[in-house]
Fold this protein.
Amino acid sequence: MNKTDLRSKYKALRNQLSEEEIEDKSLAIANRLLQFDIWEKTYFHLFLTIEEQKEVETEFILQILAGKDREIVVSKTNFETREMTNYLLTDNTKFQKNEYNIFEPVDGIEVPVAKLDVVFVPLLAYDKNGNRVGYGKGFYDNLLTKCREDVVKIGLSFFEPEDSIDDVSAADVRLDFCVTPNGISSF
């Protein structure tokens, strides 16, 4: 299946989920993440949930990271350049919703991409080879190409993988892992 068809399919599947299902599945994903050997690392990039898109609720992961006293990095998007600026999440971080309903930091302490150890990656679909389909703007592909080679890329999904994505391009960055409520895929 191609990316356009996968986007439609998985948006429709997400729309069928109730708030309770989203919460239960998101908690299951967070609990599965505890099985990873990543918690000694320092800088964790975490996307903030777009509730209107029925994304994985990352609040549970945020609580794990805060409980482990890790550095949490959140981003602000520039839709003209398709770049993300990364900021350290602190008690003083102020947020506002952008025009796409994404909560973003207004400003703060900027964190260079080279410091990121783990990036939790949002997605609509992924395949058994670690390729992912996002919303199509390339923000995470741009971010991940600038990260260190050893950065751990973890996708979060409510659903199991497709066999393959037909129209993967050279600019697409593969995941290292994808976590679902039912398990962990390693690529």
Observations:
- The first helix runs from residue 3 to 15.
